[in-house]
TrEMBL record:
<feature type="transmembrane region" description="Helical">
    <location>
        <begin position="58"/>
        <end position="78"/>
    </location>
</feature>
<dbReference type="Pfam" id="PF04307">
    <property type="entry name" value="YdjM"/>
</dbReference>
<keyword id="KW-0812">Transmembrane</keyword>
<dbReference type="InterPro" id="IPR007404">
    <property type="entry name" value="YdjM-like"/>
</dbReference>
<protein>
    <submittedName>
        <fullName>Predicted membrane-associated metal-binding protein</fullName>
    </submittedName>
</protein>
<feature type="transmembrane region" description="Helical">
    <location>
        <begin position="191"/>
        <end position="209"/>
    </location>
</feature>
<feature type="transmembrane region" description="Helical">
    <location>
        <begin position="98"/>
        <end position="120"/>
    </location>
</feature>
<feature type="transmembrane region" description="Helical">
    <location>
        <begin position="132"/>
        <end position="155"/>
    </location>
</feature>
<keyword id="KW-0472">Membrane</keyword>
<keyword id="KW-1133">Transmembrane helix</keyword>
Length: 212
């Protein structure tokens, strides 16, 4: 599926998890941003991917998601002083609420993530980075680096894997076993692909609007 579709599905999946956890506005903003990152990470194995080829646009999109979530959710939390809320969402202060200050663990997490990215570049598209093994290693790295918000990364990552099993190309879920899992229902870039992305985004908005 296309990068835009994966972003929409990642947002929808992250919002669904957030909705059952009584999130604060800043939790929502951070969770959605990390979820989008997870939803795009599997395609790091191809130079044509959103996360690999057009990183700046992804950063801008993630920033828009954060700002948009702030604007939307601030209206549901009038008791929260908006300037402070904005600063929290931007990570200007109280960063320790989300990212643990443990240099050794953070460095280990970063090394694992970088190692996974490099290894992905030497494997076929939709193999290691679309597998259970890749999911575990990437998620462990993010857990060590970012702490408990890793769950949203994992949810986004899983949403990408599940979505790609519906495509004709399929994915090597059990890598290094080469057999691909494919339901052969969707062509990447097809009308159905775009429809799926649009529908997922609508569901995402519906979930966010219901979070109190």
């Amino acid at each position: 599926m296309t990068g835009k579709t994966h972003i929409s599905i990642g947002l929808m999946s992250s919002a669904a998890v957030l909705s059952v956890n009584n999130p604060t506005p800043e939790n929502i903003a951070v969770g959605l941003a990390v979820g989008v990152l997870g939803a795009l990470m599997p395609d790091i194995d191809t130079s044509r991917s959103k996360v690999s080829y057009n990183l700046r646009k992804i950063v801008v999109y993630a920033a828009l998601v954060i700002v948009g979530a702030y604007i939307l959710m601030a209206n549901f939390y009038p008791e929260v002083e908006k300037t402070n809320l904005f600063l929290k969402n931007m990570g200007v202060y109280k960063l320790k609420d989300y990212i643990p200050y443990n240099l050794k663990l953070s460095n280990a997490g970063l090394l694992i993530i970088v190692g996974c990215i490099i290894f992905s570049k030497f494997t076929k598209h939709r193999s290691f980075s679309h597998s259970i093994l890749g999911l575990i290693l990437f998620t462990v790295g993010v857990k060590l680096l970012l702490g408990n918000i890793f769950i949203y990364f994992a949810v986004g990552f899983i949403s990408h894997m599940v979505a790609d099993t519906f495509t004709n190309s399929g994915i090597e879920v059990f890598y290094p076993i080469k057999k691909k899992i494919s339901l052969k229902l969707v062509h990447t870039g097809s009308m159905l692909d775009h429809f799926t992305g649009g529908l997922a985004f609508i569901v995402f908005l519906a979930i966010i609007l219901k979070i109190k």
